[in-house]
Amino acid sequence: MSMEQLDRWLSTLQAEWPFTFRLKPWPVAFSFMFMACLATAFCVVVTTHATRVQYAQLQQLEQEENQLNTEWGQLLLEEGAWSTPARIEQIATQRLGMRIPDVNDVEVIRP
Asked: Which NCBIfam families does the UniProt record give (predicted)?
């Protein structure tokens, strides 16, 4: 199609329409603003969802931290109980048959 044919076709098209077809700037600006509002709303929804997911992960991690702190405290208590002198004496007496010597069993050696 040549340029002359295109011009003729446009002029006949404009003559047949009941109104003139002109592109005005305000509908373009309105549609641009509408698309910007839609994009902004989408970004708000995505950001809100991401924030909620991260907050749920934070709560889960804090719960795990509390559980691990509790277990650590229990391990420290058990360690303290296992290393007490009374516990060591009890194990030595029961398992190894050791006892504290009587006064008669003690022999003093002098240099």
From this structure: ftsL_broad
Residue that has been written with the tokens 């009587």 in this structure: 102
Distance CA 12, CA 14 (A): 5
107 is a domain residue: no
**Containing structural domain, residue 80:** 26-96
Tokens of 34: 């509408």
CA 87-89-91 angle, to 5 degrees, is 70
Can you spell out the DSSP letters for 50-87? HHHHHHHHHHHHHHHHHHHHHHHHHHHHHHHHHTSHHH
| Range in 34-43, 66-75, 76-85 with the lowest mean pLDDT | 76-85
pLDDT 10s digits, 2-33:
778 877 776 776 655 555 556 667 777 888 99
Domain total in the chain: 1
What pTM was computed for the model?
Answer: 0.50
Distance CA 59, CA 81 (A): 33
Question: CB–CB of 72/66 below 8 Å?
Answer: no
Distance of CA 69 to the CA centre of its chain: 20
